[in-house]
Specification:
With 316 residues, this protein is of the alpha/beta class. Among the domains are: 129 residues, no CATH class; 57 residues. It is built from 11 helices and 5 strands. It has a 5-stranded mixed beta sheet with strand order 1-2-3-4-5, with helices on both faces. It is globular. It starts with a helix and ends with a helix.
Length: 316
């Protein structure tokens, strides 16, 4: 849900600092690539990244939502943020950008209780003098923390799309799947019928997956009861379509996984035929790939590679 620019923009408006918001051109916000970290930009940031162009046109705000699913101390966050922004700036420098993106980090924390006390800093992990003062210069990256489950559902801020996303997430985290109809009520505020139906399908897919993780199934009767206040009798026409689409998507994913497994074995067979023995690390990497098209490319790469080292370089 937070991958939608509409949800992110709504979240930013309600939870980011006003001084940043005043500089952003909200009409031009886009999802940004997440492969900023690692050698050659190959490793992906595991959170969400958005490029927020500035109104004056001379730069961007690189906004990252960090999803912290533990209720602990956040002590690893400062190191993660340094890694993120260093990777972003390194890649932007290689691309020849004269003005690098300004960072803006928001930690969306899903602990059961709100975070108390000062936010962890890099200084907490660095050596100090005998008097307890920091040695060297400050190397801090500032960030905001938003505690989701600590909020009262009825006090959630933001427009209907954001409150839908946060409300559903809150109900799922609390284990109150039976109460998710209440979280759907902001749908009533959306006048665009197509957008309402699209959001409903996405939300239901999220709820169904969350329930499946707890060995529960979202049945049609429960769904009908949840949608009745929203669609006032029309839900009975939507439900069959929703369930049919879910089944088709699941079937397509299953077929893709099966096709990928078969093509992975072909790539491994070609490698063994050409190089006799395939290291376990290469075998595991190939078997973990789920994209049939990428595996087709690897099969071609085998024929062009003069050594396993050359093939493994292409694999990376």
């Amino acid at each position: 849900m937070f991958g939608r620019v509409l949800v992110f923009a709504d979240f930013l408006v309600n939870y980011a600092e006003p001084e940043f918001l005043a500089e952003i051109d909200f009409s031009k916000i886009t999802s940004a690539p997440t492969h900023y970290v690692g050698q050659g930009g190959s490793e992906r940031i595991v959170d969400l990244v958005f490029m927020c162009p500035l109104k004056d046109g001379i730069g961007n705000l690189m906004a990252v939502i960090i999803f912290e699913h533990q209720g602990g101390s956040l002590k690893k966050i400062p190191r993660k943020l340094h890694k993120y922004i260093s990777g972003v700036w390194e890649l932007e420098s290689k691309e020849g950008k004269k003005v690098l993106s300004a960072p803006y980090f928001i930690v969306l924390r899903t602990g059961k209780r709100p975070f108390r006390g000062p936010y962890p800093k890099m200084a907490d992990s660095l050596p100090k003098r005998r008097d307890g003062k920091q040695i060297g210069k400050r190397v801090e990256v500032e960030y905001d923390v938003v505690d989701l489950p600590a909020w009262d559902f009825h006090k959630l801020l933001g427009g209907p799309v954001l409150r839908l996303a946060l409300g559903i997430l809150k109900k799922m985290l609390e284990g109150n799947e039976d109460e998710f109809p209440e979280a759907l009520l902001p749908l009533l505020e959306i006048s665009d019928e197509e957008q309402k139906i699209e959001l409903t399908k996405e939300l239901i897919d999220f709820v169904a997956n969350a329930m499946a993780a707890h060995n529960r199934r979202l049945d049609e009767a429960m769904l009908s009861q949840a949608l009745k206040p929203i669609y006032k009798g029309k839900e009975r026409f939507m439900i069959p379509t929703i369930f049919e689409e879910r089944e088709m998507k699941a079937e397509a994913r299953g077929e893709a996984r099966g096709e990928a497994r078969g093509k992975a074995e072909i790539v491994l067979m070609l490698l063994r035929d050409k190089f006799n023995k395939v290291p376990k690390r290469i075998e595991n990497t190939i078997r973990s790939m789920a994209d049939p098209t990428a595996l087709d490319s690897l099969a071609i790469q085998v024929t062009h590679s003069q050594s396993l080292e050359e093939f493994e370089k292409a694999l990376r």
